[in-house]
Amino acid sequence: MNATPEQTDAAIAGENEAYIAGVAAQLNDFLAEKHQLLAEISPATLVLIDSIKTLVTGGKRMRALLCYWGWRGAGGAADSTSIIAAGAALELFQAAALIHDDIIDRSDTRRGGPSVHKQFSTLHADQGWALDAERFGHAAAILTGDLCLSLSEEMFARVDQGSNPRARAVFNLMRTEVMAGQYLDILEEVAGPSKPHNTAVARASAIIRFKSAKYSSEHPLVLGGALAGAQESLLAGYSAFALPLGEAFQLRDDVLGVFGDPVQTGKPAGDDLREGKRTVLVGLTIDAAAEAEKEFVDKNLGRQDLTDAEVARLCAIMVESGALASTEAMIADLSETAFAALDTLPIEDFVSVALSALGRGAVSRTS
Amino acid sequence: MNATPEQTDAAIAGENEAYIAGVAAQLNDFLAEKHQLLAEISPATLVLIDSIKTLVTGGKRMRALLCYWGWRGAGGAADSTSIIAAGAALELFQAAALIHDDIIDRSDTRRGGPSVHKQFSTLHADQGWALDAERFGHAAAILTGDLCLSLSEEMFARVDQGSNPRARAVFNLMRTEVMAGQYLDILEEVAGPSKPHNTAVARASAIIRFKSAKYSSEHPLVLGGALAGAQESLLAGYSAFALPLGEAFQLRDDVLGVFGDPVQTGKPAGDDLREGKRTVLVGLTIDAAAEAEKEFVDKNLGRQDLTDAEVARLCAIMVESGALASTEAMIADLSETAFAALDTLPIEDFVSVALSALGRGAVSRTS
Fold first, then answer.
1. In this complex, which of B131, B143, B190 lies closest to A124 when CB atoms are compared?
2. Interval A252-293: pLDDT, tens
3. CA-based, 20 to 30 A from B296: which of A21, A44, A354, B352?
4. ipTM of predicted assembly, 2 dp
5. For chain B, which domains are there?
């Protein structure tokens, strides 16, 4: 007897919930172990683990869920402890990346609260310690991110990988690619303005591929499949779905970074513009805007002291040049490609439904 | 027939040389693989791997050698590829720690050349890129350190650990402890001045235990033993030797950081004083110096703009208060404890000779 769509949705929701709860419990137990260890070293170091804990408690767990459904699509069992550990490792890796990203971007907020380096500089100021509060904040956050990165790896080493080297290879590739992609991103911020305008979109596209689409979408899904021993053909199919999906996801993120509601995104309005992020949206704007507007964008993007009026003018240029509409069209195209690929995957229907729901949520979200 | 001391020394030198060459070749091949991967992502990212390569090419390889002799003492074979990979993983971890340390300490030089963040800020300035050169340098070096940390783990995952979880546990503990220790170190720089003078030595001793002695000495030796399947009693004996040895090593480092010859250490004179490192040497100085001198130390330590005359006065206070002599006495005591423990280890004579030579080199070095 076939399940009704409602029954399928309920079953998927149940699995999502159970898995997310499993990952949360795993992270909780693991960080409690580390809390104990740090308490023995010195109670003064507990702030490190506490700030990691806060960070991994929130979030959408999108990467972990992609990993889970990649595993399920390749025949992995719903109640495996190994896939829970893999999801927890991905969440810890993401937390580490966020901690260091926020230092690099000088973002003082994360999910509506203070970022890790800001927590430490506030601690410094509150305690009236010597020397510079901001410098202490950055230093402590570099170390916290390093610890978190190490914990991610420690968790991944707990995943049962049998004798199959494929999953480890994906995890390794993911890390190297995202760091290279992040470097391209900060390089574009400083070197982009002196490069040709007409290749800005291509450069921004390469950045989001490595920094975001492969890292946040393709690799987690492929990792889950590889852990379940999937054949290369299925893993290639996963990539054909998840890579364009991840690109659409990042384009959505870029749009939200400029036009999103700060209350929903947890990021102050104009933050991305003050950081000087050279996104595809910016590239399209520079491509399409009139000369005076182009110049205004090039001159003001990345200025930390942009006024609200200047932020509003930048936003208006993005709308009036048609760049926002073009970005939305790209999101639609990429989504179509992704979901067409999903339809051809040799996986059970309910896994396909679960991946489709996850994907549609990612590209049409508002936060 | 017993070997003569000369034959033993020659055999040890041969093993040291072969092992170091093996680690260097392993690192070379591994980084060539990663170079290829980054070239495919974008040639612009190759600077990341090049700066890592420069860093792991130098160095004393002390951690790797301790790991090797820990392995040999527990019956591991001289020609194992696994112990070479373990040594390479330790070297990559150390390189990652140095990259981030230099950002934290604002050290512009490393082994006589520019530190990684300085290389990137110079690249920025040379290319005439937009925005801030120093900020770009720090951001790029954070990412390079993260990449290097991930590569260390990737290398460690290649080590054959059989079904024995002990080596992985040591590697994990090493990473967490060193990061916690580094946090205590930066915390002491800012919070130390407002804490009681008479506990400064105890606080500094705790820092060097975790940040340095366990990380640089105890854990590498125990790791090698664990990889060879050593019993817990031998591993405990390794700790009894390597922990005081590591403490003596770090005290030597602190002395060299203030009194060492910049030509030999590769670090500018006064660097440690300008960084404000609250070492055991500083703690002993604050303990023993007269009131006016105490105040001078507290007020000036950590001032980035210390003049050469102020550096000289700080050095003189350390000598005249007897703090330098006390530190040397501590180095001698710790060394004695370490070598007494070494003598009782149930390991082959030539391994004992090798560890003794390695240890004596570490505590009496001049660079």
1. B190
2. 999 998 998 888 877 777 888 988 888 999 999 988 999 999
3. A44
4. 0.94
5. 1-160 (1.10.600.10), 163-367 (1.10.600.10)
